[in-house]
Amino acid sequence: MKYLLMLAILAIGPTGGRAAPADDKAEKQMMEDWATGETVCSCLLGKCAVFRGALLTDSPRSGSLVEVSVGEGMHGMPQGGRPVSVPYSSEINPKEPVESPGYAWRGAALEKNAPLTVVLALSRVGPVPAGSPLLVTGDERTSGVIRDLTREADRLEASPQSISDSVASLSRRVNPALAGFLYHYLLYRVSSQQLDLASSLLGRMIGNPGVPRSKWQWLAGVIVSCDVSLSDQGRASEIGRFVELSQDADSTTAAAGLYALSRLAGFHPELMSYLTPAVISAVANSYRSLVSRGAIPHSSPLESALGIKGE
Question: What pLDDT, on the 0 to 100 scale, is given for residue 310?
């Protein structure tokens, strides 16, 4: 299943289609928080240590180890333990910045005794080898976000069924870091045993104010790419959610729903058999409206499925 999900992500590419650009300050901050949530979750799902301390090394050099004290063990680390040697790098490859060893340190102050929170991989996480950091920050706000995410991970470990409540909480309080964490958790933990549930909850994140708008269409693409493994009931629920989204008054939400229906129509000719004539008409009207405004491109598969091809 994990291999299937990786193919799903690769299939839709890095932007998930024609997503809204993250060009305003609030959206950029939400995207940064989302990335923090994903990073922390990717580490916590494996072997990981998260701790807060202070830099003990004077004038760190790229490619060397630095010593960081342990004042607060947030996960996998005892309180007040021995200092930890952490590989430091300032190397950033402009062609692959996120894959570069220096990317983890981009938010860290390097003065001796500067406070640091470290997310340290104890087993390989993607391109990050065991013993290397995924994230190092001296920012108080980000440190607080990381602390909250480790507590969420502990809560879900103790009560896996509460994942639905966690997703629902995003509608009550904007928390893009938690949204990024939950996206990764649903995709790599929940889906392996309950794909229908993971698909349903990911669908609930589309159009959610706690999720960056530029992630809505991406999420739709991920869900559709996993469609082949859904049960009949799960597929009916998935299609119902996309139909609901396609008629939303918010054009970005509606575009995500129509994007998903367009992709589904490409490999499910029987797509419209799930819908009543009245619902098909409503989806068609929404599609015409967004196409006329240039919010979405024409989709031949969806037009054929809706019976409006050539209009």
Answer: 56
* Max Cα–Cα distance, the chain, nearest Å: 71
Q: Assess whether 123 and 246 both reside in one domain.
A: no
Cα–Cα distance measured from residue 173 to residue 146, given in angstroms and rounded to the nearest whole number: 17
> What's residue 17's pLDDT?
35
Q: What are the angstrom distances between the C-alpha of 206 and each of 67, 118, 224?
A: 42, 31, 13
The pLDDT tens digits of the residues spanning 105-129 come to 987 889 999 999 999 999 999 889 9
Domain total for the chain? 2
Beta-bridged to residue 251, according to DSSP, are none
Closest to 121 (Cα-Cα) out of 135, 133, 106, 136:
133
In tens, the pLDDT along 213-253 reads: 999 999 999 999 988 899 989 999 999 999 999 999 999 99
DSSP state of 129: P
Q: How does DSSP assign 72-124, residue by residue? A: EEEESS-TT---EEEE------TTSGGGSGGGGGTB---STT-EEEEEEESS-
Low-confidence ranges of the chain (pLDDT < 70): 1-23, 309-311
Pick from 124, 142, 144, 141: which is nearest to 132 by CA? 124
d(C-alpha 237, C-alpha 185), whole Å? 21
199 and 310, same domain (yes or no): yes
- Judgement on whether residues 189 and 310 belong to the same structural domain of the protein: yes
- Cα separation, 237 vs 156, in Å, equals 24
Report the sign of the C-alpha dihedral through residues 276, 208, 286, 291, in that order: negative
Domain end residue (candidates: 123, 158, 193): 158
Task: Say whether both 148 and 58 belong to one domain.
Answer: yes
Which of 115, 141, 158 is the last residue in one of the domains? Answer: 158
Task: Please indicate, yes or no, if residue 60 is contained in any of the structural domains.
Answer: yes
Domain that holds residue 132: 36-158
The confidence score (pLDDT) of residue 23 equals 58
